[in-house]
Amino acid sequence: MLQYRKMSTMPRLAKNYRLVFDVVRKQGHGRHLATADVFRLVKRRRVGIGFTTVYRALAKLRDLGLISEIHLPGADSAYYEPAGDAHAHFRCDLCGSVKDIAYVPSKRVVAQLAQSNAIEVNDVILSLHGRCVSCRERESA
Description:
Blueprint: H1 15-27, E1 33-34, H2 35-45, H3 51-63, E2 67-70, E3 79-82, E4 88-92, E5 98-101, H4 107-117, E6 127-130, H5 133-140
Parallel strand pairs: 4-6
Antiparallel strand pairs: 1-3, 2-3, 4-5
Helix pairs in contact: 1-2, 1-3, 2-3
């Protein structure tokens, strides 16, 4: 319930989809790429690829559990990162930077919230917002 789906074997992917996956995976954990960022990086390796192909590849890779799609309030678009262990995200309200936060609410807390609200929880997506260290330092200077 609180972890990303991991696949034991790599499914067969079309060459363009595999390229998109390789680009996202190569960026590593902690790098959050918007669709336009992924497109720019893929285009460097395959000049003729179209934006729609990259967009569809990201959706397919997300559905397969190979990458994670992150929607953060205040962001212009979704971000993508390699699938991995569940974690929270912090988005700076001033500069828009996104950072991984090593936190997952306990299963007990989630179960209590579900029970007290008569709901079924399938996933927990936690985002924190505020000012990053760099923006705070700039403001205090």
